[in-house]
Amino acid sequence: GKTINVALVGNPNCGKTSLFNFASGAHEHVGNYSGVTVDAKEGTFQQDGYTFRIVDLPGTYSLSAYTPEELYVRRHLSEEQPDVVINVLDASNLERNLYLTCQLIDMDVRSVIALNMYDELERSGNKFDYESLSRMIGTPIVPTISRTGFGIEDLFKRVIKVYEEEDPVIRHIHINYGEVLEKGITNVRHVIKQNGNVAKSLSKRYLSIKLLEGDPEIERFIQTLPGSETIIEERDQNVTQIEELLLEDSETAFTNARYGFISGALRETYEQNKIKEATST
Ligand code: GDP
Ligand code: K
Ligand code: MG
């Protein structure tokens, strides 16, 4: 049978290790603790004639370059190139969890979302039309409860579909960052294309976004390419332009645009339980 390499990516405490343990039969530590080392656990299991090699990556809120965890996850994604990423979300904290999802979309990785803590969502009485969000972002979403194993078999069935390129929902999308940022992305991307000679596997849109955000690691990577001076110059000009037009620094503008995208998406798909809201104040 075939082997599918899967990486678990999500915020701290969203249930990655519980999912990992349930799927692989491992007994890794679950719950709140601050690990001293940043590392990843690996496990293997079989389902539906496939072998899954899964990696439980450190929890992160973002894929910028500010913490060892963020860098570790990012390097794993670009260097190991897992076949499919399982993006684990805490369904009771969608707005914050979807920030990382936006960055996975930027990186253009093939992913399936585990809508974990689904029990807490049901208990809350809040309504979430996750299938609609799924179509919107072109990514399958499967409800799971890692603690009990609910949904995990279905989750890996979707991973197989995505791996085999048979999933009906999968669609390549972009976060629309708005006119000003999109223009900057287009300009930098164009210059990377002309000068960079970047590996095909690396999304040029992703590199452009990261450069415009001032990401030091991506800048160091670009500096290894022929034509890097022209690329960095184009970046600098576009950052200046963005900051003049939006009156905020470029990195903040990207962060705000992501949260804008998320709140727009949730406005269309998520409804707070009004009764509970009214009585809890
Ligand atoms: P990680 O930090 O992402 O690896 O998350 P863990 O697997 O360590 O889980 C964090 C906490 O959430 C633990 O107390 C788990 O028992 C709990 N947990 C994990 N999955 C679920 C779930 O689907 N529902 C509920 N209610 N709790 C969960
Ligand atoms: K919890
Ligand atoms: Mg964990």
TrEMBL record:
It is found in: Cell inner membrane; Cell membrane. Residues 3-165 form the FeoB-type G domain. It comes from the Bacteria. Belongs to the TRAFAC class TrmE-Era-EngA-EngB-Septin-like GTPase superfamily. FeoB GTPase (TC 9.A.8) family. Probable transporter of a GTP-driven Fe(2+) uptake system. This is Ferrous iron transport protein B. It comes from Parabacteroides segnis. The chain holds residues 110 to 390 of 827 of the full protein.
